[in-house]
Write a structure and sequence with these properties.
Blueprint: E1 2-7, H1 11-22, E2 26-32, H2 36-46, E3 50-52, H3 55-61, E4 66-69, H4 76-85, E5 89-92, H5 100-113, E6 117-119, H6 127-137, E7 144-152, H7 161-164, H8 168-171, H9 182-199, E8 202-210, E9 219-220, E10 223-224, E11 230-237, E12 242-248, E13 257-264, E14 268-272, E15 279-283, E16 293-297, H10 304-314, H11 322-341, E17 345-346
Parallel strand pairs: 1-2, 1-4, 2-3, 4-5, 5-6, 7-12
Antiparallel strand pairs: 7-13, 8-11, 8-17, 9-10, 11-12, 13-14, 14-15, 15-16
Helix pairs in contact: 4-5, 5-11, 6-9, 9-11
The structure holds nicotinamide-adenine-dinucleotide.
């Protein structure tokens, strides 16, 4: 039996608890949140016997093999590093950290200690992206020239700002002082991973970030609303392809839309998660003359939660691991630098 502790029992933790409770051979034994009532309710809801309001006490008191770190972004590094030091396996939410040096520290510490480490880049749960990765490696669409990728959400446009003062779960996402890296760190991290997983490493970025005014004084209580909410990044990949990757929280009409188009000199691939997680559109090199797009059906892939547990059982660390999380973080750091300097930056 693999014993798991969940740290941070807010919105996303429910997905973690639900997923782990469905996997045979693992058990949720402890939960921790700084808000007492929240962690107690979470424990009752998910059948977790031991609850804590302090992570140090959880580490000292609960017998665990692994933790799932579902705290806000700014706590990912300190909490994961403490768990690693104790020899626990760690599944950490994305972004892995708030900057590359911290992310690298986490990857190095996990490797040195020999613990299983994965970052919840959850769109890797799509079978279609794994098939796209394989097809590109098989040169099914030839040499990659051009890439277009977007991850669009609409929630800022739909926001009731008066009600928001009672919803810190949304406010920390809008405030750099509270550890947020804005839309780029929140969902940009997904689309940067989603595009570069099949296409290959990103060599340079030219990034424009924008924070639109939201409320008078751009502040709600202790939360200064200064984190970016729209990001447009043009990239060059190590293989020479170029791409446009963009993300926003202002895409009115798109609740959660994620799409990737890869164009090679012989064919093309479209992965559109609004349509399907298990199908992609493929224009094969040999069919290009007739422009016959085919729908490729892919067998569902195990979830990151299942792969994390399997990695603990087998000792073989699956992807995306902390090293991958750190690599994406390096691209994001370059994006911030590029926006600041107003010019392209090498990763
Ligand atoms: N992979 C995905 O698709 C996905 C989706 C949503 C959120 N997330 C990530 O999950 C993480 C949590 O997001 P959320 O939406 O659940 O946020 P949330 O604000 O709803 O929950 C965070 C919880 O952590 C608790 N917390 C804060 N500091 C803590 C500490 N030091 N120790 C223990 N608990 C602490 C808070 O009290 C809160 O209950 C974020 O990093 C976010 O980026 C990932």
């Amino acid at each position: 039996m693999i014993r798991i502790g969940i740290v941070g029992t807010g919105g996303m933790a429910r997905a973690h608890a639900g997923a782990f409770n469905r996997i045979r051979g693992c058990r949720l034994v402890a939960a921790c949140d700084v808000v007492k009532e929240r962690v107690e309710a979470f424990g009752r809801e998910h059948g977790i016997p031991n609850v804590y309001t302090d992570f140090g006490e959880m580490l000292a008191g609960a017998e665990m093999d692994a933790i799932s770190n579902v705290t806000p972004d700014g706590f990912h590094a300190p909490i994961s590093l403490k768990a690693i030091r104790k020899g626990l396996h760690v599944l950490c939410e994305k972004p892995l950290a708030v900057n590359y040096p911290d992310a690298k520290k986490m990857a190095t510490a996990a490797k040195r200690k020999g613990v299983i480490n994965m970052v919840n880049l959850s769109y890797r749960n799509s079978a279609a992206i794994h098939r796209a990765h394989t097809l590109v490696r098989q040169e099914a669409i030839g040499r990659i020239m051009h890439v277009e990728a977007s991850y669009l959400q609409e929630w800022l446009g739909a926001m009731d700002w008066k009600a928001l003062s009672r919803a810190p779960a949304m406010l920390w996402r809008l405030s750099t002082e509270h550890g947020s890296k804005g839309v780029l760190g929140d969902i940009g991290v997904h689309i940067l991973d989603f595009a570069s997983y099949p296409v290959g490493d990103i060599r340079s970025v030219n990034c424009r970030l924008k924070t639109f005014p939201k409320v008078k004084g751009n502040r709600i209580g202790e939360y200064k609303l200064d984190a970016n909410d729209s990001a447009i990044v043009t990239v060059e990949f190590a293989n020479g392809a170029i791409g446009a990757i963009h993300t926003t929280r202002w895409a009115t009409g798109q609740s959660n839309s994620l799409r990737l188009r890869i164009y090679g000199d012989k064919g093309a691939i479209i992965v559109d998660l609004d349509r399907s997680y298990t199908e992609l559109q493929l224009l094969r090199a040999r069919a290009r003359a007739g422009r016959q797009w085919e729908t490729v059906k892919c067998r569902p892939t195990p979830s990151i939660y299942q792969r994390f547990i399997k990695s603990i059982r087998t000792g073989a660390n699956d992807q995306p691991d902390f090293a991958r999380g750190a690599a994406v973080q390096k691209v994001m750091d370059a994006c911030f630098e590029s926006d600041r300097k107003g010019r392209p930056v090498d990763v």
